[in-house]
Amino acid sequence: KTVGDDYGYPFRNVLSYFEQDDYSFANLEGTLGDQGKAQNKKYVFRGIGEYTRILTENSVNAVTLANNHSFDYGQEGFDETKRLLDEAGVPFAEHQSSITVTTDRGLTIGMYALDFTRGEPDREQMEADIRALKESGVDLVVCAFHWGRENTFQATKSQQEMGRAAIDAGANIIWGHHPHVLQ
Fold it and tell me: Average of pLDDT values for 4-18?
């Protein structure tokens, strides 16, 4: 009700930051469209399919779907979200996968996504995936990790260890999301 068809509303006060950067990634925490059945959870998130325009009209260039709300409406909701993002031309990375994008200036960025809320990922597999992405020739590797305890201001020992392992494997940036506070 707040957004209506004003797709610029959610970013109105910060759009200048997004417009001035070379490339913006976001964590799309929820589903889009009207497919699927709400899962039995306390919180389920979904927006209408037209909300892809919130991304495209506000300089969000790519998203990660590796989070604890991507399946709030089951596999059907997840699949429809991916279809809508494809139709809108918004690249996305799923859990334990990567995408490669190129900025207007020619910088090639690889984004690797992991959802730690599914359980601690296999460290060796993560390191191998990051090394493979780095070896593919990208200029910059960004790891999008959905991790950390909600409402805590300190990263856990496990986050620190996995973050260090990702850097040692070739990551340039560790971008964490999930706690709802800065860590």
Answer: 93
